[in-house]
Design brief:
Blueprint: H1 2-10, E1 16-18, H2 29-34, E2 38-40, H3 43-49, E3 52-54, H4 61-66, E4 72-75, H5 83-92, E5 95-98, H6 113-132, E6 140-142, E7 145-147, E8 151-155, H7 159-170, E9 174-178, H8 185-190, E10 194-195, H9 216-232, E11 235-238, H10 253-256, E12 264-267, E13 283-287, E14 290-294, H11 303-321, H12 336-341, E15 342-345, E16 348-349
Parallel strand pairs: 1-2, 3-4, 4-5, 8-9, 8-11, 9-10, 11-12, 12-14
Antiparallel strand pairs: 5-15, 6-7, 13-14, 15-16
Length: about 350
């Protein structure tokens, strides 16, 4: 975003922006140049010159091959699913930092792109549900009678789930929520929702704050409890994801068939495999009158704010580590944030999690 350009130039950096970068958001090239950026139409040449490349989607293999040896990359990489890209980055001698791998610590919060985008996804999931549901969300007293509030059930109370709960409550719905981590019950209740308690025995979460995979026995207990709540709900929103792995399937066809025609499910995990059986990316599937909605990019529905937050995340990362004397971004491998998000460096895959991945 143009405001980020101004911050980077203030640090002493020279900033090049690819021509028409902001066009989808109605941001003209002149707004970038007004903040001091140089506009380029030659992508390959710009990549060859850049000491640091900032990007949203992972770079193509051709993009990586155009980068100069010793250059740095900061952006999404989908590292668990991109062994060929990681190998190409290693061969090119690029120091690649993956925003997905930035740890969820207090000091790294301002750089955490996953959390900022998940918050928007949670908001959009509720707005999407409100658009497609054939009922209103709030209770309404009218001359012809009282309309009861919609019943919304949110599965997963991470960043996206909590934002979905808060948004549904703002719209006046009656909200229930479930998470495998009992520790989040207080957060759910503080937003005015009812926490659905299921005794699953021992459960835990990863360092990144994701719920750990359940045993088959725990999954069956969870399924039975959720089926009852789903059957009573107008809207079910699923947000369950496992870091670096396929999203768990938690709503199957049997559970969907217990829901009333006209109700709907919104699957926030459809891009990583889906929580709902039959959910398809960027499609609305109808199963016996129950809609199953899956979007590959929920934050993209509010693209301006998504871009604004992502731009700030990258800028905050750079500002945090920037060396004003040398006007560079040094990489201290002893720093917790750098050591966790740095995937390749000086021709080596330095992150242990990806050293054994083999290109297809």
């Amino acid at each position: 975003m143009p405001s980020s350009v101004a911050k980077l130039i203030k640090l002493g950096a020279t900033v090049e922006i690819e021509q028409n970068l902001g066009t989808p958001l109605h941001i003209d090239d002149s707004q970038y140049s007004d903040h001091g950026a140089e506009i380029t139409s030659d992508r390959e040449s710009a990549l060859q010159r850049a000491d640091l490349t900032l990007k949203l989607n992972p770079p193509s293999l051709d993009d990586v091959k155009a980068m100069k040896k010793g250059a740095k990359y900061l952006g999404y990489l989908h590292p668990f699913h991109s062994p060929e890209l990681i190998e190409t980055l290693r061969e090119a001698g690029v120091s690649a930092m993956s925003v997905e791998m930035i740890p969820r610590t207090t000091i790294a919060q301002k750089m955490d792109a996953l959390s900022s985008q998940a918050s928007l996804a949670g908001y959009v999931s509720v707005i999407t549900a409100a658009q497609h549901l054939n009922k209103i969300f709030p209770m309404m007293v009218t001359p012809s009678g009282t309309i009861q509030p919609a019943r919304v059930f949110v599965i997963g109370a991470g960043v996206a789930g909590l934002q979905a709960i808060a948004t549904a409550k703002r719209l006046g719905a009656r909200v229930q929520a479930f998470d495998t981590r009992p520790t989040v019950a207080e957060q759910v209740q503080s937003l005015g929702a009812k926490f659905v308690k299921v005794d699953l025995g021992e459960t835990s979460q990863t360092e990144q704050g994701y719920a750990k995979a359940l045993t088959p026995e725990q999954l069956q207990l969870q399924k039975e409890a959720m089926a009852k709540v789903c059957a009573q709900s107008d809207v079910v929103i699923t947000t369950a994801q496992l870091f670096g792995r396929r999203a768990p399937l938690i709503i199957d066809n049997q559970m969907i068939d217990m829901m009333a025609p006209g109700s709907l499910l919104v699957d926030l995990a459809v891009e990583s495999g889906g929580n709902v059986e039959g959910a398809l990316p960027n499609q609305i599937v109808d199963r016996n009158g129950v809609k199953i909605i899956g979007l590959s990019n929920f934050p993209g529905e509010v693209a301006y704010n998504a871009s604004e937050m992502y731009s700030n995340n990258l800028t905050n990362f750079i500002e945090h580590f920037w060396d004003r004397e040398t006007v560079t971004l040094p990489l201290n491998l002893d720093d917790e944030i750098i050591s966790k998000c740095l995937i390749t460096h000086q021709g080596v895959v330095v992150n242990p999690q990806f050293q054994t991945l083999q290109p297809a």
